[in-house]
Design goal:
four-stranded mixed sheet; about 60 residues; alpha+beta; about 20% helix
Length: about 60
């Protein structure tokens, strides 16, 4: 399951996984410009590969541009 939450700061948090268990928070220190159609290509790649291997974890990707 994937859902996106807008935080009060204006940042967005994309959550991958189910449940209330431990979470891994991924924040990328990218440049000032947006890359069309992506949050962070390297983090998307990492989460896509790790989330099926660790179903007990949730992954949170932060976008804050």
């Amino acid at each position: 399951m994937i859902r996106v939450v807008r935080l009060e700061t204006g940042a967005e948090l994309r959550l991958t996984g189910d449940g209330d268990g431990p979470a891994v928070v991924c924040a990328n220190g990218g440049g000032a410009g947006d890359a069309e159609g992506t949050w962070s290509a390297s983090l998307e790649w990492l989460v896509r590969r790790l989330s099926p291997r660790f179903p007990g974890l949730r992954f949170g990707e932060v976008r804050y541009r």
